[in-house]
Fold these 2 entries.
Entry 1:
Amino acid sequence: MTHVRPAFQPKEMRSPRPSPRRLALLGATGSIGRQVCDLVERHPDRFALHAVIAGTDASDAGRAARAIAEAVSDPDVDLVVVAAAGAAALAPTLSALDAGKDIALATKEVLVMAGELVRQRMRRHGSQIFPIDSEHSAIWQCLWGEKEAAVRRLILTGSGGPFLRRPLETLESVTIAEALAHPRWKMGPKITIDSATMMNKGLEVIEAHFLFDVPYSAIDVIVHPQSVVHSMVEFVDGSVKAQLGIPDMHLPIAIALGFPERLDGVTTAPDLAALGQLSFEALDAIRYPAVALAREAGERGGTAPAVLNAANEEAVALFLKGQRRFVEIVPSVRQAVESAAPDEELTLDTVIAADRWARAQVRTTSGGTSRVRSELPA
Ligand code: MG
């Protein structure tokens, strides 16, 4: 098969790209990490694992964190794959950027917590981020060959998760198992719960803002239950480009790792005739208040998105331990975001402080009132 070279090129393409590309993989045991290992095994001519880091909390200030910083900055590493869960991925990502490394980023929390910091480091060191998140991979692909001025808005699709059709009044009794049963994607527990609340889509709005440098007003969300259209870009002439694929993370991983080449046979293409129908619907703001909440935090800027992210991680963790109800997750996050101190200047220290404050805030306050419940007709 001939590989078509996309017209879009990053500004500072380091060439020649070595083959195999040597990867440092942060977060090897999670769902994305295991799929990265699959791809490396299937393409030994293209990729080699130079360093594999798993199971250590990189947010520690201790020896483990220094070892991780060294591993991701190693001169022999060509690309750092960041797939560790949540906030723990921030410090090693900044270390890798400081060493001028390009990053394939699966952990959206890094951009949510500290998007502005990440952007500063990228500019300073000429490094780049290739998104692994499927929606952002779709947008990235739609932008290949396009001019910035031609883009009118980004349209993120979201499946709506397992509770798209569930009567609102029964959300009160959602069990952990029900929330973990995502209809389309097989993912880790934290992101699966985020998909059920659609906080995942809210975090992705913030992620898209920082990745593509687009104002929040030009980022929309639409519900698409089949998860075949992974996202879209609308252009100034009224044209809309979409990227389609079956829900399989191997594809966005392969695109981020292999860029600017496409790898042969990563996954099967969707059979549209067999699918028959693709449907779209407006986001229901009462069912999914997390999206507007995330957007508010994003627009407020400073450490507000870091508070949102940490409060959400903590509330989800408590739900998974059976210590919060499903309907208490988003109100807990809102309570933290609304009672956070006026936004501070964004530095690694203020981000970490905001993160700790928000976690403690969620742990020490009870779930808060359920907005879903309070907005239901009496
Ligand atoms: Mg996604």
Entry 2:
Amino acid sequence: MSSKLQAPRGTFDVLPADAPARQTVEDASKRILEAAGYRRIETPAFESTELFARGVGEATDIVQKEMFSFEGFSLRPEGTAPVCRAYLDHGMHKLPQPVKLWYLGPYFRHERPQAGRYRQFWQVGAEAIGSDDPSVDAEIIVLLQALLDELGARELRLRIASLGTPASRAGYREVLQAYLREHAGELSAETRERIDLNPLRAFDAKDPGTQRVMDDAPRLADHLDDDDREHFAQVTDLLARAGVEWEHDDRLVRGLDYYTRTIFEFTSDALGAQSGVGGGGRYDGLMEQLGGPATPGCGFAAGVERMLLASEARPQPAASCDLFLAWESSERADAFALATEARRAGLAAQLDLAGRSIKGQMKQADRTGARYVAILYPDGTVLRDMDSGQEEKVERPGVVAGVLKGRHAL
Ligand code: AMP
């Protein structure tokens, strides 16, 4: 016998029992985002590798280590660069700005699998492209907060910071690099190697020596220019007006290079090591990186599995069944025709598909939670009301009408 095949590590099956909870995420996302004017977009599951190299950044862990790539393409590790590519491809700059889009689908990262961290996971995201107004940043954050609240995510914390514009960040980068070189001996080898390419990641380091050095490191917040400072102040004022609680965290680092100005992350203390439920920020330089005209944008992405892990499990109502058709073997074709008729009439109808005895079929009807069972014998038909246990003899052409009438009466 051949050995049993297994799903790849870091992937999971969405079983029927898991589907309703995931559906609530989709329904809540659609309701909340579309009420704010966001419209759904879906881009392909794979794109040219170059899109992510340019969009997410050559120096990022995502591009260097975490992409599944083949023949010049990569499975998408994130959604913002693809949505910006689509914005450019379809000339969306001609639409009223900002163009507001949302999406929900699978994403792929070649990470070390652990609880809450998968190699294929789902994200819901929203992007508002074409305006650098602080109200866009605030709206994106408020909408993600609304979604997390709606799903019942527990013990949430919102951290925000401003990364400034590329110009102010470049100045700060040099100051930080000089500081890191001065303390090179106390840093982890990994952080030392990143001084040239990605010095900001040092704030993210787990090793205690590096963390001690970073406690006294120069902060980006002290190097923002006046415009960046004012933009950030307006975003936080708007959040305060919306009643959103947040913490300023000037050590916040995001694993993607495209951010400018506002960045934010929601974490849940109810989760373990992988506590990030969703985050995002502004990416005013991204469109140019992709070869388009300068176009500001801001968005969020939140992990579907993480949001569900952070939420109270809610009991899901079982799917209903209005009519179950049980049949003796000579009556199969009639049962099949009646099931089809019932479904066309809008009823939830099932019939026995396993050649069970009448007794076995009644048990099966019970398991499906059927409201009525029609039992087709060679010499007649009985309709049983499963709530009251009452049975009556009926004509077959009247079965569907009888169930519809009974359902109306409820
Ligand atoms: P990021 O694009 O890295 O900011 O990720 C946005 C959100 O996607 C995170 O806050 C997580 O909720 C989720 N996420 C990212 N990577 C993974 C992963 N490997 N497995 C599950 N969820 C993830």
